[in-house]
Design brief:
Layout lengths: L13 H26 L2 E7 L5 E5 L4 H18 L5 H10 L5 H17 L7 H59 L18 H26 L2 E7 L5 E5 L4 H16 L16 H18 L8 H62 L4 H11 L1
Antiparallel strand pairs: 1-2, 1-3, 3-4
Helix pairs in contact: 1-6, 2-3, 3-7, 4-8, 4-9, 5-8, 5-9
């Protein structure tokens, strides 16, 4: 009768689907690890469950390294050919937003200088408050990214520690198995676990790579259909050739989802305060508004930038210095405004006091001029009495 080929379809029962997903996901990751070791290739795996949870694997230690190589691969390919491809769509969304780290630092420093060089007539208190809000939002976003990167580093270290422990346990188990195999070598009992290592023969390695790669992509396809998940594979051969697999037709959509997922994990609420600046008011104010807008656009692509923890700490320091300077300038302007009002009020009081003094003097002079008119009749009466 032969074997009947069953049609793959989604597992309807939720608990069965979850169990199958857990088992098959681990199996796919294990096969990806074996492929990377045996054939000396780089493998990256992205899996989004039906609930939106992300599972990832990278043979290079960091998924960012393979994603960077993936972008570079298509950049080089685009430079050699004018034809459009999926990589242009993926990379084109970031090339206008993401600026170099050095340019971002220079922009923040320019804001610092603009605020320091501007006269009080050119910058109002409202302008400084708006600048303070935008710099504060940029500083919070940078700190959130720094915190996320620190957590990712800690998690990577924990994963590495866990992997080393598992490897240590595996080696101990393998050592015990080797000792047992030596004792039972004559009886040919049990199965000996073969240690995975790179296949030295080039032809054998190429054949193994082709077979295992196809088998891995098949397992990934089965996982995506049975468990209703999204799966993407990136495989770079030892010669640098790229092999891709995507359960949704193109790896671009899954990579974009991964980028979006990374941004959402960094912060739950994204600052959306956009300053409405009057660009025709003053030349310096226009320049300051443009600089703030440049910083904001750069920070929108902050999570796509491959910045190190040291870069983020330097950016945080520059933003903090600029924000502190703006706050000090705002306080100085408020104090100057209060002093100006105080001086005006004091001047008005002095003028009013002088006016009152003049009125009092005038009234006194008026009374003195009235007394001589009353004395002559009195003197006449006295002379008659005498």
């Amino acid at each position: 009768m032969g074997r009947k080929k069953e049609e793959l379809k989604r597992i309807e029962k939720k608990i069965c689907r979850q169990i199958t997903f857990s088992k098959r996901r681990k199996e796919v990751i294990e096969k990806a690890r074996d492929l990377s070791v045996l054939c000396d290739v780089q493998v990256a795996l992205l899996v989004f469950s039906s609930s939106g949870k992300l599972y990832e694997f990278s043979s290079a230690g960091s998924l960012a390294k393979i994603l960077k190589r993936h972008r570079s691969y298509f950049e080089e390919k685009t430079a050699l050919s004018d034809g459009a491809n999926d990589a242009e769509l993926y990379h084109g969304k970031y090339e206008k937003k993401i600026k170099s780290f050095a340019e971002l630092l220079r922009t923040v420093q320019s804001i610092h200088r603009q605020v320091g060089n501007s006269n009080s007539e050119e910058l109002t208190l409202s302008d400084l408050e708006q600048t303070e809000m935008q710099l504060d939002a940029a500083l919070r976003r940078t700190r959130a990214r720094k915190t996320q990167l620190m957590l990712e580093t800690i998690n990577a270290l924990h994963d590495k520690e866990k992997t080393l422990r598992e490897e240590n346990q595996r080696l101990k188990t393998q050592d015990r198995s080797s000792q047992l195999s030596c004792l039972l070598a004559d009886k040919r009992m049990g199965r000996k676990k073969v240690e995975l290592k790179r296949i030295e023969n080039k032809s054998s390695r190429q054949v193994t790579f082709s077979k295992r790669r196809n088998g891995l992509f098949k397992k990934a396809h089965e996982l995506s259909v049975l468990c209703d998940v999204q799966v993407a594979f990136l495989v770079f051969s030892s010669s640098g050739k790229l092999y891709e697999f995507s359960s949704v037709g193109s790896t671009t959509s899954i990579l974009e989802r991964y980028t979006s997922h990374s941004k959402k994990m960094a912060t739950s609420s994204k600052e959306t305060n956009h300053a409405e600046v009057d660009y025709g008011k003053h030349a310096n104010l226009k320049s300051l508004a443009e600089l703030l807008l440049t910083v904001e656009r750069n920070l929108e692509g902050l999570y796509a930038m491959e910045l190190t923890l040291g870069d983020l700490m330097e950016l945080e320091e520059q933003l903090h210095v600029a924000l502190t300077h703006v706050k000090n300038r705002k306080i100085q302007m408020m104090l100057e405004s209060v002093k100006s009002l105080h001086d005006q009020q004091e001047k008005m009081l002095k003028e009013e006091n002088q006016l009152l003094e003049k009125q009092i003097v005038a009234m006194k002079n008026g009374e003195d001029s009235d007394h001589p008119l009353c004395h002559p009749p009195q003197q006449t009466t006295l002379s008659l009495l005498k």
